[in-house]
């Protein structure tokens, strides 16, 4: 067990609850077509998920768009697709494309972008195959029309020279994560939903370690998530999606859920989660990794993934 007393509570970059109140209500972070945010005006903000963006390799970039008004409260832009651009501080050519909506598994998805309550729909917009040519500060730019309102938004983010976390092409860490056979671990350390006498709800995702999969030469889907304590409300749906993938995906692959917290009250992270994700006094989640039979990381997703896309790639890798 590893404790991090100085670590701030898991602050997921795209926190639907934690970020909405600050991102959408602050005048400095809003940009509306008709003026200041009032009782009927909607103040909006763009937020780039920053889970380890780096130069020289194609990546998925996910963004969230938040809206807030006096009459409707906090809302999220969901459904359809939106134009998205990334501009570097060096003044080079912008990266442009169409970002498609990725819903949290099990939530609704409309055909056209619209502002909706988080209880009805929540998710992110994803632009695929983005290769950043230079490190440093970048700016995301978005112009869209939602609910009859024209909105222009920007958000700054950092691109590093190299990934800080395990990335495609890296060898997967041969981690001895907790399993159902870990007799020295409490049930909630295996899955945070197993509290107050409840059983681990997804024992099939806690049968093997990452080291087991590597040693056996099996492909593996490894999800790092804390369903109970996740600030983004993405961890529960993604864990449920992994459970479904374990039932429909290749039988010659392993499906592994790694709980983040060994003891949430004591601020103690499970060693497996810390080894993979804890950097610079911080940890972001959820993360899904696809590990090939040779132990190499083939792909990764954060904070959300499309189960159909993951299944297709897993089938290819597992053979």
Q: What is the name of the CATH architecture of the largest domain? A: 3-Layer(aba) Sandwich
Stretches where pLDDT falls below 50 for ≥5 residues?
1-39
Main sheet attributes: strand count, strand direction, barrel closure: 9 strands, antiparallel
Overall pLDDT level: 86
Overall tally of domains: 2
Structural class: alpha+beta
Report the CATH C-level class of the largest domain: Alpha Beta
What does the radius of gyration come to? 20 Å
What does this structure look like?
There is one protein chain. With 319 residues, the chain is of the alpha+beta class. It has 2 domains: 20-159, Immunoglobulin-like; 165-318, Glutaredoxin. 16% of the residues lie in helices and 32% in strands. It is built from 6 helices and 16 strands. It has helices at residues 20-25, 187-190, 210-216, 235-248, 271-277, 307-318, and strands at residues 2-3, 43-48, 59-69, 73-78, 81-88, 95-103, 114-116, 123-130, 136-146, 149-159, 219-224, 253-258, 261-263, 268-269, 287-291, 297-301. Strands 2, 3, 4, 5, 6, 7, 8, 9 and 10 form a 9-stranded antiparallel beta sheet that branches. It has a 4-stranded mixed beta sheet with strand order 12-11-15-16, sandwiched between helices. The protein has a 3-stranded antiparallel beta sheet with strand order 1-14-13. A hairpin with a 3-residue loop joins strand 3 (59-69) and strand 4. It is globular and about 55 Å long. Mean pLDDT is 86; it is low at 1-39.
